[in-house]
Design goal:
alpha+beta; four-stranded mixed beta sheet; 20 helices; globular; disordered N terminus
Length: 481
């Protein structure tokens, strides 16, 4: 966590800026207010802190005392045990093993001295952040230290990780595309976690999907029905393979954030796998590493629901209201852009209406460094729950970029469904009137019906375009006689 936290300090400014800065065309900030010297000083300072702190972490040994102790019991516990770890991170490493009853398991073993070293790491981080605060008051990173102090003890308790895994598995059991490995409680401790072994490729590995013939998009069935059959499918852009996976991730995280308020906060590609279901053959997402979750308060969750509803339906008055409720103050346009990864101009036109252009992406990247002080100010004033939400959003966008997909109208509509359900459930929970609850239920059903109708219209339009593309592919690459 300490390593992740420091990386967050050095990346947040650039990553969040790149994922949502209103451009020089907007009227709220003038890029000319921030000179090259000031920006250079800020970036250089962040880089120095990152280097110093990451260098200090190299003293943490990566060999595992727990693993060596486990060696003496391996023959009692396991039929076989792979010495070479499947993966190694800053806190633990994972080995593949087989129990005597034939079940294959993943054994997560915590590195030695991590607990003892972690308190020193946090102290060092606090000293460095305070030093930077004295030199450059506009950069406020004390929130980073506070988050590390709160989250690190939870991540070091593997039993807590197991409980989180079971909770999210039960919470999202209606998603047949999600797999959360089962925990073997009888063999788990605070520092050793045994779980069901689930194989798969990283979610950003498009070659793995193709090699394993993972059917992740309905476009394939339509392609197989045309005259060129498999040849037509093989000529479709690889991007088509990843659309359904991206949509599934969007549904899953929208449900976590808006409906349940219990959010997996580390969805980097190593923790999100894709595999073909052994029975059905359908694409399945495997969610790993449940040590870090954000529990949202009801007030925060409902305000966040209202804010996203306002962004999706381009209600700028409510965008301002709910952004300010979440601590954005007068920087609410910047906050809206950070959440959506769009320019302020696109937010005003409608994020579900205006497609992302290469020009917009380029402008955001080129102008990102100008707004580092404002981003630092925002991160220090929004609720602490928002920090991990922003990190999660950024990691999900990284997966989308790797897959070659971007948030579409369909993904925004899925978010809107979750917001409608969450707000309706809150209203029903807080009324004793049967008539009022019935009225809320009818309103919820009607709003969901409207979204379904709108999505159907979009799909019909998209289907017509897809059929034309497939017809062209079949004409260009006819099937052999």
């Amino acid at each position: 966590m300490a390593r992740k936290a420091l990386k967050l300090a050095s990346w947040t400014s650039m990553a969040l800026a790149a994922s949502g800065i209103y451009l020089y065309s907007n009227k709220y900030l003038d890029p000319n207010d921030f000179g090259a010297v000031r920006v250079g000083r800020a970036v250089a300072t962040t880089a120095v802190i990152s280097y110093d702190y990451l260098t200090s972490l190299k003293s943490v040994p990566y060999g595992s005392e727990e693993y060596l102790q486990l060696r003496s019991k391996i023959h009692d516990l396991f039929q076989s045990f792979d010495d070479t770890p499947l993966g190694t991170a800053s806190l633990a490493q994972v080995h593949k093993a087989v129990l005597h009853d034939g079940r294959t398991v993943a054994v997560k073993v915590q590195h030695p001295k991590v607990r003892a070293q972690s308190s020193k790491d946090i102290l060092l981080m606090e000293v460095l952040v305070l030093a930077v605060k004295q030199l450059f008051p506009e950069f406020e990173f004390m929130w980073l230290v506070d988050e590390a102090k709160k989250n690190l003890p939870l991540e070091l308790d593997f039993l807590n990780e197991g409980r989180n895994a079971e909770k999210v598995s039960q919470m999202l059991k209606h998603f047949d595309f999600l797999k959360v490995p089962r925990i073997h409680w009888d063999l788990s401790t605070e520092r050793v976690l045994l779980m069901e072994f689930v194989d798969g490729g990283q979610v950003n590995d498009r070659d793995y999907m193709e090699r394993n013939k993972i059917d992740v998009n309905e476009v394939r069935s339509r392609a197989q029905g045309c005259c060129a059959g498999e040849r037509a499918w093989s000529r479709l852009p690889r991007k088509c393979l990843c659309v359904q996976i991206s949509r599934h991730l969007g549904k899953m995280y929208s449900e976590m954030i808006f409906v349940n308020g219990f959010v997996h906060c580390d969805p980097h590609p190593g923790n999100v796998l894709v595999r073909k279901h052994p029975s059905t053959g359908k694409a399945e997402i495997v969610l790993l590493d449940h040590g870090l979750y954000q529990v949202l308060t009801e007030e925060f969750r409902l305000n966040y629901c209202h804010l996203w509803q306002s962004l999706i339906w381009t209600d700028m008055k409510r965008v301002k209201e709910y952004s300010q409720r979440l601590g954005a103050g007068d920087l609410y346009p910047l906050f809206a852009c950070m959440l959506t990864a769009r320019s302020w101009d696109s937010v005003n036109r409608g994020i579900s209406q205006a497609p992302v252009t290469a020009t917009e992406d380029l402008e955001i990247r080129n102008n990102a460094a100008n707004y580092l002080p404002q981003i630092s100010h925002l991160l220090n004033h929004v609720p602490r729950q928002m920090l991990l939400i922003l990190k999660t959003n950024d990691l999900l966008r990284g997966i989308e970029a790797a897959l070659g997909t971007r948030a579409s109208a369909s993904s925004f509509l899925n978010m809107s469904r979750c917001c409608i359900r969450a707000l309706a459930e809150h209203k029903k929970k807080n009324t004793c009137s049967f008539f009022r609850r019935t009225q809320i239920s009818f309103s919820e059903a009607f709003n969901l019906w409207q979204i379904n109708l709108h999505e159907l219209i979009l799909r019909v339009k998209g289907l017509k375009l897809a059929n034309r593309v497939l017809a062209l592919i079949c004409w260009l690459f006819p099937a052999p006689l």
